[in-house]
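ok trying again, last paste got cut off:
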Amino acid sequence: MEKDSSTLSGQITKDDFNLSYLVQGHGTETLILGSALFYPRTFSEDLRQHLRMGFIDYRGFAPTAKPFTPADYDLGKICEDIEDLRKACGFGKSVVIGHSAHGYLALEYARRYPDSISKVILICTGPSHGAPMFEAFRRWDEAVTPERKDQFNKDQIKYPLSAAEPGRKFITYCQALNTKSWFNPHFDASHLWKDVKVNDDAMDYLYGEVFRDYNTRQALAELNAPVLLTCGLHDYGVAPFWTWNELRESSRDFTVNVFEKSGHYPQLEEAEAFDNLLVNWLKTK
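nice, full thing came through this time. structure:
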């Protein structure tokens, strides 16, 4: 459904999963993987003056009445969905952006569909959700102020997973991690999650197994596209940026940028600096 000359929205259905898309802005065609409702709220309006941004759902943000089976969340099927959504957005060869664990989806999609992507941007993605996370735990224990840790404990009480409503488990988990996710440990992110629907079974499986075991080294080795990794210095929820060091040699072109006043969402926390970095990097690659 067209809203105006620069905005397009719609939905496709794959295997009983209703996947939405929202296209906004002008410029370089760019796919942002995750939630078509949550992620538009995290990127600036200014960036839409440089990018034609296609925000697309994947099955983790598509509740379904289907009984859970791992086969429904196979990475091959998810990447096929992304390819179909790219076409629904009317995009040709595109930049692909994945934030947090959705960075693995961006890498896997780029690996499987090299003719559909030009560049890959990872935002606050760790090398995996497996062993590198131990460095995140160690950093939290050793480098974080008592005040931030105290707020973390308060948030565990405020957002108990045991009391989460169906479809809210993942959101409650994210809210309970506010102090690990934001430069400002008191930031209230509830407005970002308004009306967002989540497939809890999918998230449990993908985060608990698929993303934990993702072979980032292999994906980087098979990519011909340049990769930009952006990180927040105060992101305590994923493996820190230096855990990528031993993998960087696997990529033909791998750039890292760290935002010093950001946590897990530099696109929102330092929007101007983030926008400038992306625009300039895209011009030079």
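cool. The mean pLDDT is 95. The longest strand covers residues 17-25.
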